[in-house]
Amino acid sequence: MVVPLETAEPPNPTPEEIKKAKKKCLYDFDLITVDGGKLSLCDYRGKVLIVDFWATWCGPCRIEIPGFVELKREYSNKDFEIIGVSLDRGGPSVVKSFAYKMGINYPLVMANRQILLAFGSISAIPTTFLLD
Asked: pTM (2 decimals)?
C-alpha cells in the first residue's frame, strides 16, 4: 500500500530570528594556547579567519607555515587572523619550541574534543578552513 505524504517547505526565518542567529557564535568554547592562555574563536567575529589543523611532525604542514607567516605579516593591520590548531601529542612545550624555530607569528592552540567536533572529522593534515 502506498500512502501519500504531504510535503511542505520549512517556514522561512523571521527577520528577528535572522538577527538573533547573526549574533550567536557557533564556536563558543575556549581553546588553550601553547602559552597557557585562553582563546575563543568567537573573539574573532567580524574578521576573516584561517583555522589550520596541523602538527610539528607533518611535512606538508611545515611547508605551508612560511606562507601563513607571510600572510599574517602582510595583513596584520586588517580584519584578518590565522589560528593554528596543533594535533601534536607531545604537548604545548613541543609546539611552542617548534613555533619559535619556524618564526610563527600567529596564535597556536592545542586541539581539543570541542574544536574537533565543531569542524567535523579531521582525517588528514594539514586541513585548513577559511571563516568569514
From this structure: 0.80
